[in-house]
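Possible regression after last week's pipeline update?

I re-ran a chain I had predicted before the update to compare outputs. Posting the input and the new output here so someone can diff against the archived version. Not blocking, just want to make sure nothing changed silently.
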Amino acid sequence: MNTNENPQAVLHAIIDPLCGWCYAAAPLFDAAAAAGFSIKLHAGGMLTGPRRKQIDNQWRDYVMPHDQRIAALTGQVFGENYYEGLLRDTSILLDSALPIRALLAVTALGGNDLAYLHAMQLGHYRDGKCASDENNLHLLAEKLGIDGAAFAREYAENEEALYQHIVASRALMNQLGAQGFPSVALETSEGHLKLLNHSRFYGQPSKWLEYLNEQLS
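New output (post-update):
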């Protein structure tokens, strides 16, 4: 977790590693973290179980307009290897469970979960290296300085932790009345959670920080 200068300033981010709009929000999370907010990640399992997606032309046609809108709004990069590689590889099954397990493993081993999430997102959307590929996930953990053998062990043993984490994240969504990914809530000093309207700040991290500070005061 991120070190936090202000213990009152905690942001809860309900995300999914395979959600394009969570990639859109990455600069907002980074700006908040740099300003001293602690970011607590809750992965909701968008594409798990029966909701997993086999890449095909229909999926490509569905996601590309969203991706292009995200790029225009935020400047986040979607690379040629993603558009013409990953999104044309019909052997790929998009499964959120794998990157969430990797995220939980990194967190359990004391790694920076937000940095790892962003590394997965950049690998997927910019470089076309699928975030549902165990080998990619392993390599990214090692690049962050996580011991490879320890990561593999933790990953292999956290299936039950994954299930509990997704159930808890979904319960938090219900508690907040949140719709979809990402959803962001500010935790007050009294421990109350306030759902924030983050989406109007895509591409405007400085205005987002002003808004956050207004919510705190």
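Follow-up from reviewer: compared with the archived run. The two ends are 24 Å apart (CA to CA). Marking as no regression found.
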